[in-house]
Amino acid sequence: MKIAVNTGGGDAPGLNAVLRALTLGAESRGLEAWGIRHGYRGLLEPEEEGLVRLDRAAVRGIAHLGGTILGSTNRGDPFAWPVLRGGALTPVDRGTEVAERLAAQGFEALVVLGGDGSLRIAQKLLGRGVPRVIGVPKTIDNDLPGTDRCFGFSTAVSTAVEALDRLHTTAQAHDRVMVAEVMGRDAGFIALHAGVAGGADVILIPELPFDLERVAEKILARERAGRRFSIVVAAEGASARGGSSSVLAPADAFREHVRLGGVGALVAQQLERLTGKEARSLVLGHLLRGGSPVAEDRVLAQRLGAAAARFLAGTTASGLVAVRGGEVVFAPLECVLAPPRRVSLEDDLITTARDLGICFGDEERPAP
Ligand code: F6P
Predict the structure, then answer these.
(1) In the chain, which stretches have pLDDT less than 70?
(2) 362 a catalytic residue
(3) Which member of 77, 141, 297, 362 is catalytic?
(4) What is the CATH number of domain 153-290+344-355?
């Protein structure tokens, strides 16, 4: 059986580790794996990109590398393919063409390493004649429905924690408030986990709209206790109560989601006014997507990749290789159509954070 693999959409550390495990697992089961370059571009514009044979030699020594050996794009939706017409980019539906080109080359299954956008596209391709799709959950945001975990998340959290450790020393030296903005879209998983691990004093997440007066109270209480600096972690999708998220660019015909960003700067500016303390902000942004996957992501990615090969060889179904309760399971692909996951307010980590005295800027007071 010939299978095609695609790593389109925002990258996440661990993509190469999945490719390695999938390729080795496929090879040992007699499956022939091919990688599509740059999302679907390798199929739709093969003269520019094309396909890469994924065999043992092609994936040798790549598990520890960030990025993806296949390349990616965030403008690669075959149902809204950017085509230059009359001097402007126009979205063109080339979904059926993807199915036809896969069939013409003898591919019997498509494996998509993707977040919600890429996997919804893959699900739609089933309706256009792609015979089988296997999804592998990828996103640093960890918000994909249907799975408890996505590869890339642990690395993003570790990178954010390293940044927070560094911010502590400069914040302390200058008695400043430092606000670090982290990715995560409408979910606060990265902010919550990094904030707890990195000893933040304040964590702002989209699931708990904040009131900066409360945050200022927390910072001033620390000041009175002799702690003259504070570290704030703000998820990019966090917003003030009654307000909305900070948007850098709107969604468009080629981009399903708005581009979030700017909340960290706003929070720092207002905290300066409310506390009289110097505040600075920084956006960790794409640093969280870059670099080598941490060990946990290398393990998870290879478990998922190997499981994808097993499901390909052992079943005839489409599905999502998901993590549930610590186990890797084969879930129905339709799971990815549910709304993105968000931090549950019942999450033990929220309670733990409050017990540690971390302020979320909401109604509930942190422990003294
Ligand atoms: O979904 C992953 C993610 O990294 C989000 O956290 C972030 O909002 C978005 O992608 C950024 O995408 P881009 O690479 O298009 O800037």
Answers:
(1) 365-368
(2) no
(3) 141
(4) 3.40.50.460
